[in-house]
Structure formats: structure tokens, C-alpha cells
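In practice, a research group might receive sequence data for several interacting partners and want a quick structural hypothesis before committing to experiments. The following worked case mirrors that situation: the sequences arrive first, and a predicted assembly follows.
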Amino acid sequence: MDRYFLIASTFCFLAAVVHTVMEVRAKVFRPMRFNFLAIGLGFIFQTAFLWIRGQKLGRCPITNLFEVFVFLAWSVALVYMLVGPAYRLSLMGAFTAPLVLLLQGFALIAPIDTRNAVTVPANSWLEFHASISLVAYGVFALACIAGVMYLLQERQLKTHHLHSIFYHLPPLTNLFAVITRLLWWGFALYTVGIVSGFFTGHPLPRIQVVAAIALWLLYAAILQARHLKWLAPKRVAALCIIGFSAALALLWGITFTAELHRVP
Amino acid sequence: MNLFCIGLSHHTANVATREQFAGGNATAESIARQAGCAEALLLTTCNRVEVYAVSDKRISTDEITRCLIAQTNRNPDNYALPFYRYEDNKCVQHLFRVASGLDSMVVGESEIFGQAKKAYESARTSGAVGPYLHRLFQRAFRVAKQVRTHTDIARGAVSVGSVAVELAQRIFGKLSECKVLVLGAGETSERTTRALLSRGVTDLRVSNRSLDRARELAQTVGGRAVAFDDWVAQCREIDILLTSTASEMPLLTAEILAPMLWERVDRPLFIIDIAVPRDVDPSVNEMEGVYLYDIDSIRSVAEQSLALRRQQVAAAEAIIADHVTDFFDSISQGLNRFSHAAEHSSLGENPLRASEL
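A structural hypothesis for the assembly, expressed as C-alpha cells:
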């Protein structure tokens, strides 16, 4: 039953992607209302799925890789709903929808919705640690999307070849300000996530801890370099993409090793 | 009742012919009176002279052109008169296309919208516009707004000044906090400077080999003059550099700029080089955070904008077609009712006017 909500949500994001592609091809790009509505509806279905799944499990629904991917997709949509309209980055929806579609599509298609018995008992610190870290990943995902938009805009300005999408992308300086804010928010949430991990009372695999701290150090280095003006905005934008790719790899690794430990 | 438009434009008449009519003393009111139209409106711009009118009986093109020629005090035999005529739904379609900028010399330009509004206001004030032209023009303004909102017909800039402003806004967003240095005090740079000022630039510096000329331009546009020897040092602070000197050699090279970029790593530098030969070495564009546009690249952007606008014409025509059908259906009913009411004037007030009220 709960999967139907997820399928409906995935179709909403698919509609946003198809609409964007069609409009870009027709060169009559109007991303604002339709994308926001489609993503909003998709977000409601995602929330319904997570709520039903959470009720069934009696805990936060992040017990396997499938749920982790859906929770991450939900975090990305949540942060977009909070950030996109606030910064008038309507086009961000056109870039957010494909990422969410990819995450949810993969979760639905891949055989990762396994029903292993959860070995760790429900623990509020553990749930807080896992969920806040996933929301931080969602913020990093948005920073990555803003980074892609920045690089796209920058390339068009450098090469003097302006696609119609050029007129809908935010100005470079505005995008860079958004990237910086998202990096700070993501970093703060991720720091809370890591610190709360030490209060779970559950021994974490050393490799996970080392990888998580390495990711934290990567974002700290990006922010420090940004603060000291060592890095040009273009490089910060590129590092946002690299950082989120690393975060995804880490997330996969953490969930995969956790599931390995559960196999009898 | 007949709804028609008679006129000439850049499509049918050369500038010599257009200027004879554009400079005439004809008014909507005088045309309505002389030709015997129930309502009339005269739209005159540098690219077109058009009369929109409503009449009980058919009025020939010659009658309208005679009214226009009479006001020019010229001999009509000296001109080939390339007037066109549109009636009923073709007239409605033509006006919607004109108001939306589809019939303009530069497709999508917005000036015509203001000119049409002004012509309407003028004719309304003189009493030459009645309920039909009122409804027609109000719908035309609505259509024009819809076309601009729902297509990219007005997107992109097509002149040097507007391209410079558009690009600057794509880089910096609001220009009110941008520092601009104008190097060289030519006519094009003055026009471009004015375009930047119109978008909120307040910190403007002008440098020229002749300090007097720099002061003169600075005074004209409201900036401050900078000695020519000091302009390079300004590159540490400024956001936009506009150059148009007569120098035979590049004044700004990557070697000169590199040390200054270290101090402004997080701030982009937009350089508009409209000089020929160029003032800025093309390799400067390869530097991180520097966006260099010379006159050719600005023209290329303008051409891309025009091409983009042309691609939008089909979408705009579709919007117009919907409105033409809808509007002509509604006004036809009104015209028929009006004719019927005119025949039975004792029945009372013009039904269309009543519906307007």
C-alpha cells in the first residue's frame, strides 16, 4: 500500500522532468508554477509514504537502503520547498526534480527493499543522528544543484553562446550566495549529525566514522577556502558537486555495511 | 458595421515615404470627421502610420489616404502609396500582432506597446474612440501582455547598450552596487554608460587620455573623472570595465590583470570592449572570473537574441489566433446588435455601450 504513494510521488517528479524537457526543447521555458506544483504534490506523497512506513515499523523509516534513498529524496524535496521560493530560484525545481526522480526511481527498481530484522533497537539518539545526517545530505544535494546551475551559467557567459535557459538562470553572484548559504546550513546540520552519532550508545564501524569525518573535513575545507577567498566561485561550485558525490558514496557505504552486519 | 485598418509600415514603404506621413498633422478626430467614420484611431510611429476605424458604410482606402495626405501638405502624385488594408478579423489580428511587437522591425520590441497606448489615449481624449475601438485596443493590450509573459518574444537584448546591461545583470544581478569604469569617451560608450545608469549604477568613473574630455563626460552622466595613468589600478575595485579608446595596441593584457585578480578572487569582472582595434587582449577572457565581450561577441549575442525571438513567433501567433477568434466572435455579436439597434433606434441605447457600462 505504502509503495503506491511512492509510485505516485515518483510520477509527480517525472511529470516535472518531462515538462521541463518539453519546454526547453520548444524554447518556451516557463518553469515556475508547474514545477513547483508537481514537486509539492510529489513531496506530499513522499511524506505519506514515509509516515505509513514509519507507523508500520514503529520507528523512523530508515532501516534499509530503499528507505534511506527515499528519505534522502524527501530531504532534497523538503530543502527545495524551503529554499527555492525563498531565494526566487524557481529554476532550481527543474534541476531538483531529476535528482529526486533518480533517487526514487532507483529505490523502486533496485531490489533493495529488504525485510531484514532490525538488529538495533529503536533509539531516539540513533534516529536523530541518522535523520539529521540525511537532511544535511539533502542540503548538500541542493548546494550541488546550485553548483551545476552556476557552472552552466558561467560556461554560457564565458563562451558567449547563450541558450534560452540562460535567461531563466539566476545571476552568478546570486547563485554563489545561495551556494555559500547552503554549504553553511548543510555543514551545521552534518556537524550536529556527527556529534549526535557519539551519543547513540551503539558502536559504529570505524571505517564509517573515518569516512564521515573525512566528508566533514572536505566541506569544512571548502567553507574555509571560501571564507579566506582562496577559491574562485567556479571551483567552489565544482567542489559542491564533488562533495555531494562523495556524500552519496559514503551513504551507500554506510547502509551497505550496516546491512552486511545484519545478514545472519 | 465595418472594422478596418489602413496603413503603411516599414514592410511596405521606405523611410522617405513613412516620414512624410509620420510628420503630418492628421489626428484621429480629423480623420473620423473627414472620412465619416463612427470611430477612428491613428497610430503613428517612425515605422508605421495606421488608421483603425469603425464605420457604418464601407469607406475606401483612397478616402482615408486622402485624409492623411491632406494633412501632410504634399503632392500625392510624388509618392507611390503602398497602403495596406485589413478588415474585420484580419484587422483584429493585425493590431494584436502590432501591439505584441510581432510586426515590428526588431521583432519583440516593446516600444510599440507604449506607442499604441499613447495613440489610444490621445484618440480617447479627443472623443474619436467609441466602444468598439475601446474594446479592440483593451484586448490588444491584454494580448500583448500575455504574449510577453508566456513566450520569450521580448527576451534578450538586441543593441550594444542593452546587451551590455543584460549580460551585466546575468553576472551581478542588481547593478546598483556595481562600480563601473568607462575608459574612452566615445559616443557608443556614452550610450552604453547611459544604459547601465538607467539600471541603477551609481558608482561611475570615467577615464580618458584627455582629462578634460573625461571630466566633460563624467559631468554629463554624473560620474567622476579618473586620470588616464590611474585607470589600471582601478581594476582592483571595479566590477564593470567599458573600454572604447582609439589605442592601436591592447591596453589591458592578462599579464597586467593577473596580479589584481588575486585580490578579487570572489568578485567577477565584466569587460565590455567596444573599441576597434580592441583595447583588451582576447586572452583575458581565459582568466578565471573575467568575462570579456568585444564588439563582435556583443553583436553575436544580439543576433542570438533575435534568433531566439524569431523562434518564439509561432508560439506568439498561436496565442494571438486564440484571441482573434474569441474577440471577433464577441464583437461580431456586438456589431450585429448595434446595426439592429441602429435600425430601431427608438428601442434605446447602444447595446454594446450598455454592456461596457
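Before designing any experiment, note the following. Chain A is about 75% helix and 0% strand. The interface with chain B takes residues 26-30, 153, 157-158, 160-162, 164, 166-167, 169-174, 176, 226, 229-234 of chain A (CB under 8 Å).
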